[in-house]
UniProtKB/TrEMBL annotation:
Keywords: Decarboxylase, Flavoprotein, FMN, Ligase, Lyase, Magnesium, Metal-binding, Multifunctional enzyme. It comes from Neptunomonas phycophila. Residues 15-225 are annotated as: Phosphopantothenate--cysteine ligase. One of its GO terms (biological process) is pantothenate catabolic process. The gene is coaBC. Pathway: Cofactor biosynthesis; coenzyme A biosynthesis; CoA from (R)-pantothenate: step 3/5; Cofactor biosynthesis; coenzyme A biosynthesis; CoA from (R)-pantothenate: step 2/5. It catalyses: N-[(R)-4-phosphopantothenoyl]-L-cysteine + H(+) = (R)-4'-phosphopantetheine + CO2; (R)-4'-phosphopantothenate + L-cysteine + CTP = N-[(R)-4-phosphopantothenoyl]-L-cysteine + CMP + diphosphate + H(+). Its EC number is 4.1.1.36, 6.3.2.5. Catalyzes two steps in the biosynthesis of coenzyme A. In the first step cysteine is conjugated to 4'-phosphopantothenate to form 4-phosphopantothenoylcysteine, in the latter compound is decarboxylated to form 4'-phosphopantotheine. This is Coenzyme A biosynthesis bifunctional protein CoaBC. It comes from the Bacteria. Its cofactor is Mg(2+); FMN. Residues 10-219 form the DNA/pantothenate metabolism flavoprotein C-terminal domain. In the N-terminal section; belongs to the HFCD (homo-oligomeric flavin containing Cys decarboxylase) superfamily. In the C-terminal section; belongs to the PPC synthetase family. CTP binds at residues 103, 113, 130-133, 148, 162, 166.
Length: 225
């Protein structure tokens, strides 16, 4: 199906979306990562193309096909994701940070495979990764910036805190304590949090949720301009 660049709710707008996990190397054969499937970000990219947007998807390692008409940049680490996001968002109108970025990475990457020692306990030194969405949102002429919040409790108050702390325009909050939705599931239920509104969306297929989220984002973007 051809993209409707002239007619959709995001007609002609440029979107940058991050998706999937990041991988933080420890040595040549090992890494720290998480269970993010990338499905939500890829579905958002597809829905945004259908709404008429030009979409770049900055993706960590996932097992998903690239949606039609989407420009895909593959990265592994959070640092590489930041670099790709900084260069792509210099031109974009809307930035959606859907990736499950590793909060910390090993402070040093061993040049050779780490050998098992005599000790029963091994300690890893980790260093904080840059916050990609906060970095983009704090720039002069920042795009309209959307973050996700993966929480297991006090969903709305943690989301409001992230909205303010990271200077975001919208947070899409997600209850990751529920095993029926989120991370590896095809379904998701989210709460939209802006500076002056809290809106709960019902549980639905990620594909359908993506369309609904893109509609909400388009409306908020236009109201904010
Ligand atoms: N995010 C990011 N860069 C990071 C960490 C998170 O861009 N280094 C983005 C995510 O893509 C998401 C939002 O920030 O859009 C919130 O991620 P989350 O993990 O919920 O927030 P954190 O600030 O990392 O807080 P915590 O994990 O302690 O809840
Ligand atoms: Ca985090």
């Amino acid at each position: 199906t051809a993209a409707s660049f002239e007619t959709g709710s995001l007609a002609g707008l440029r979107l940058t979306i991050t998706a999937g996990p990041t991988r933080e190397p420890l040595d040549p054969v090992r890494y720290i990562s998480n269970h993010s499937s990338g499905k939500m970000g890829f579905s958002l990219a597809q829905a945004a193309v259908s709404a008429g947007a030009h979409v770049t998807l900055i993706s960590g390692p996932v097992n998903l096909a690239t949606p039609d008409h989407v420009t895909r940049l593959d990265i592994n680490s959070a640092q590489d994701m930041l670099q790709a996001a900084e260069s792509d968002t210099a031109q974009c109108d809307i930035f959606i940070a859907c990736a499950a970025v590793a909060d910390y990475r090993p402070s040093a990457v061993a040049e050779h495979k780490i050998k098992k020692g005599k000790e029963e306990i091994m300690e890893l030194h980790l260093i904080k990764n840059p916050d990609i969405v906060a970095t983009i949102a704090s720039k002069v002429n920042a795009p309209f910036t959307v973050g996700f919040a993966a929480e297991t409790r006090d969903i709305v108050s943690y989301a409001q805190d992230k909205l303010v702390r990271k200077k975001l325009d919208l947070i899409i909050a997600n209850d990751v304590s529920r095993t029926d939705i989120g991370f590896n599931s095809d379904d998701n239920a989210v709460t939209l949090v802006t500076a002056d509104q809290v809106t709960e969306l019902p549980m639905m297929r990620k594909r359908q949720l993506a369309t609904s989220l893109i509609d909400h984002i388009a409306q908020l973007y236009k109201a904010n301009r």
